Amino acid sequence: MSAQNTILFALLWPLLGAVGIALAGRWPNLRETVTLVTASVLALSVWSLAPGIMDGGRPGVVVAEVFGGLSIAFSVEPLGMLFAALASTLWIVNSVYSIGYMRGNNEKHQTRFYVCFAIAIAAALGVAFADNLLTLFLCYEILTLSTYPLVSHKGDAATIRSARIYLGILLGTSIGLLLPAIIWTYTVAGTLTFTPGGILEGNLAGPAVGLLLGLYVFGIGKAAVMPVHKWLPSAMVAPTPVSALLHAVAVVKAGVFTVTKVIIYIFGVEALFAEPSGGWLVYAAAFTIIAASVVALRQQNLKRMLAYSTIGQLSYVIMAAAVLTPLSEVGAAVHIVAHAFGKITLFFSAGAIYVASKKTELPQLHGIGRRMPWTMAAFTIAALSMIGVPPTGGFVSKWFILAGAFQTDNYLAIFTIILSTVLNAAYFLPVIFAAWFSTEPAGGKDHGEAPWPAVLALCVTAMATLAFFFFNQPVLELESQLVGRLK
User: Fold this and answer.
1) In the predicted structure, residue 477 carries a pLDDT above the cut 80
2) What range(s) does the NADH:quinone oxidoreductase/Mrp antiporter transmembrane domain occupy (predicted)?
3) Percentage of the chain with pLDDT > 70?
4) Do 309 and 353 form a contact (C-beta atoms < 8 A)?
5) What's the predicted TM-score (pTM) here?
């Protein structure tokens, strides 16, 4: 199969899988088999593109010409290859976890859950492979709409209210800010195609650059830069596999991926670096990192703590991209991977705890490590990665982001990373200590681990968090193509 056909297959296959899942809905075992087969075949097809991209290939395909030289088109470049490989691979693990969680928790509407999940993955791949801003915008909106039924899955009044906040913020920012930014870009550049070095240099200068950058950053609400972040805590009403999708597999990764891609391929790193009006982004990202970490420190609900942790961790990627050095741009891409492995493990662990014990609050976790050793061992590894402790993937990404900040003597970024690391430790380490070394409250529910598919999935992602510390060179080589050779 040619690379062009592989791209089309990867985009259509999850949609065909969604149809198969719907048809098999009356038979749970068959339905989940279709889900796993669809996810596995998708991952293999996406990974088959990697060797060509590593060798410098940039395959693409035009699906339809629209108007004014605009088209619905897809192509694969290093950053998109990384995002697509990550989303497709983690879909397999998330599907295994979902089987244990959804059955163990006796969730309703499981067929709808798996169908919407497949559509969301297809939209995420559309974002990853988008050749231009128009294509990306359409897939970005489909991703928002397809995840709304997942967030509102429980169906009670409180859940619907939170899901509407999720939908309202993401649609409001994309239509009210991102779409005008795209139209403005087209009027001044005459194109929306992602181009190495950017398309705005010579077409836009001065304060207008900073204003357009603001429309993009806050219009891409999935990146959760404050104050466009409240949809993320609101979405915690969703089942834990959905939270994992939102925080690790597709949604927030689509946000920071899009911001990074806009900086590199629309503005251009060198052109944006030369414009003082774009310098505000580092400050916005730094504020989000510290503020979200402080809020996470005050949370008593485990999933809400993880939600605010995600907001802060996402802005590591934004800040790294905004530092505008070769090492920091690579660090932004590497942190997308490291955070995905770590955060999906944390949410898997939170869901496993809920299925096994119905515990959701931090004070309830005292001594739980003795009852759920596999789950809490995975949680511990992932938490250490969020802090940035070796040998975990989080250490690697923080290393590159810090190195990039030192390249330009960006002391704000350096200070932010150091302070946020301390804050991360302040809200994660007490949970770890309480789970392993505190005494379990009297009268607690007698329970063990969650169903084995859920435990298997969280162990796999925890091991990936460790493995990425040692086996990250392919990612570094791939992403260094974005900015030239590492210096």
Assistant:
1) yes
2) 130-423
3) 97
4) no
5) 0.92
